[in-house]
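G., the chain you wanted modeled:
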Amino acid sequence: MRSFFGNPYAKGQYEYLEARKRQQLHITLVCAFVVAAFVAAGLIVYHTTKNILSVPGILMVLPTANFLVTYIALLKGKPLDPVKREQAKAYEENGLALFHLMYVDEKGKRHFLEHVTVYQNAIVAYAPSVKEAERVTVESDCIVRLRKKGVNLRLKIYTDWQEYWNRLLEINKEIPEDQVKLVEKAQELMLGMSL
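Predicted structure as tokens:
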């Protein structure tokens, strides 16, 4: 049996985003309930907010707010359209595709990447919500961070599905054995830089 707070999907899987949203919402609601319960218990028992039971309630406000902010950030992400997912299924089956990454840049700004494909000499991503002005900044930020970790791959973000799909069709879905570790490391780093 799965835990109430658990997420059965790994980051990068298609189902992860919706499961993570539910998980964050559940944790936020439970924390908010705990805050309210402590404050209410203090009011009922001591008839004032200046009591020992208010302290744990007040201490729980910050973690509750943190969970709420993450939940709100995840709401920005929408699942990849099922038709587009079906098109990209071959890349998912080969282990090249990552879904629904909330990439966090060096400044802490969040950018939603609906579909990311990591292959032997580059990373391509589909992110229709990333504005053109942000695209170059996100690409260069990610490239610099990957290079610091020893992964020398290019990154190109597409905001149009057809352009992205045409680029995917050019990609060889079979990764040469000498490139497998590089692709796995790049995927691991992309996941690490995402919520």
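Residues 135 and 157 are 7 Å apart (CA to CA).

Shout if anything looks off.
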